[in-house]
Write a structure and sequence with these properties.
alpha+beta; 7-stranded antiparallel β-sheet; 7 strands
Length: 366
């Protein structure tokens, strides 16, 4: 039994690893094409683009690992089924679940390595990569951090916590200095939205739910107490340089580690700020390792059932369709969290549970 378990597991590791490399190569190729549009901006050159892409490999491998596990398992087990190896195992009394169990030991090893790389290595490396990219593109006018991006525009230093979409920023803090580099005024806006662009150097921004803290007296400009003011809506011209904002790539929440997400959630809860998106990202991180195991297990009943005598090309196509369906379900359920106040944990857990149910059903039939 140990020989059979090692044979299945080692072949699965080879297949999953090969598929992961191929998927990674395709993704990096298109990512390089996307990065070429930034080459020549500021101090960002071709070497910088290659460096940035290489440093994103751990995160990309972590994200695409469920798809790699599914396609790799389908191809390896499908090849074994076509050569009647799995049939021979079945004839000596090895069940479908036992075949899956033999392979799961090695897939679990792959899962642990990917999870450790995605949690311990990827966030630190990508933070370093984003810092270098942002600094090079903005020529030192923007600095990328784990908790957002700092951008300098004239005598203003602006901290952007998160970009909601292309023209909307969330939790923006503006620090305005005087000619002596003393803090003159600070403003916190819950939402900042670009409402009109006349040209590249002329834009109008709308700030909503603004809290303004004024540190100077309006008559003589000297420090004289602190004045607070709340403004529902206000407009500012040329608040942010559009070119710098485009190059300041704000970190997506899925790129944060579980530890960082936990810290941010606690901090935002303590300050009565929304944490929905952060909780979704947190649960995605928790569920990711289980998704790898489920997708690998799904390949076993598929191969022993509907795909027993199919060609390798058809198995590859089925793997791609199933993987795409998995990510489509994730994209479908996660927005329900904000639309109908669906629990984040349930929204994230449902897609893997649906695929696990499908795998168990096919295993019983096989």
């Amino acid at each position: 039994m140990r020989i059979i378990a090692n044979y299945i597991g080692i072949n699965l590791l080879k297949g999953i690893g090969l598929v992961a490399i191929l998927l990674l190569g395709i993704d990096l190729f298109f990512y390089l094409i996307n990065e070429l549009r930034f080459v020549g901006t500021g101090d960002y050159n071709l070497f910088s683009a290659f460096e940035f892409i290489v440093l994103t490999i751990p995160r990309k491998l972590y994200i695409m690992s469920p798809l790699a596990a599914l396609i790799g398992s389908l191809l390896v087990l499908g090849s074994m089924a076509k050569n009647c190896e799995l049939v021979a195992m079945r004839t000596v009394g090895i069940s479908v679940n036992k075949i899956a169990l033999f392979g799961s030991y090695y897939v679990l090893l792959f899962t642990i390595l990917v999870f450790l790389g995605g949690e311990l290595l990827a966030p630190k490396i990508e933070l370093f990569a984003q810092k270098r990219k942002t600094f090079a593109l903005s020529q030192g006018k923007a600095i990328y951090t784990a908790y957002g991006t700092w951008i300098r525009t004239g005598n203003k230093f602006i901290h952007v916590a998160r970009i909601k979409d292309h023209n909307t920023l969330n939790n923006v803090t503006i620090y305005e200095l005087d000619q002596d580099l003393k803090l003159k005024q600070s403003s916190f806006a819950e939402t900042v939205k670009l409402i009109r662009v006349n040209n590249v150097n002329d834009s109008i921004w709308e700030l909503k739910n603004v809290i303004v803290t004024d540190f100077t007296d309006a008559t003589n400009g000297k420090t004289k107490g602190i004045k607070l003011a709340k403004i529902n809506n206000k407009e500012e011209q040329n608040l942010l340089d559009l070119n710098i904002l485009q190059t300041a790539n704000i970190k997506h929440l899925e790129r944060l580690s579980i530890k960082n997400l936990t810290t941010i959630i606690k901090d935002r809860v303590a300050n009565n700020l929304t944490v929905t998106d952060y909780r979704v990202a947190f649960w995605k991180k928790i569920v990711q390792p289980f998704s790898i195991l489920i997708m690998s297990y799904l390949a076993v009943p598929f191969v022993l059932g509907p795909l027993r005598s199919c060609s390798r090309g058809l198995r590859l196509m089925v793997g791609v369709i199933l993987g795409f369906s998995f990510y489509l379900l994730n994209a479908l359920f996660c927005p329900l969290v904000t639309v109908i106040n669906f629990p984040p944990s349930i929204a994230v857990i449902l897609p893997p549970m649906i695929f696990l149910s499908l795998a168990l059903y096919l295993a019983v039939r096989a």
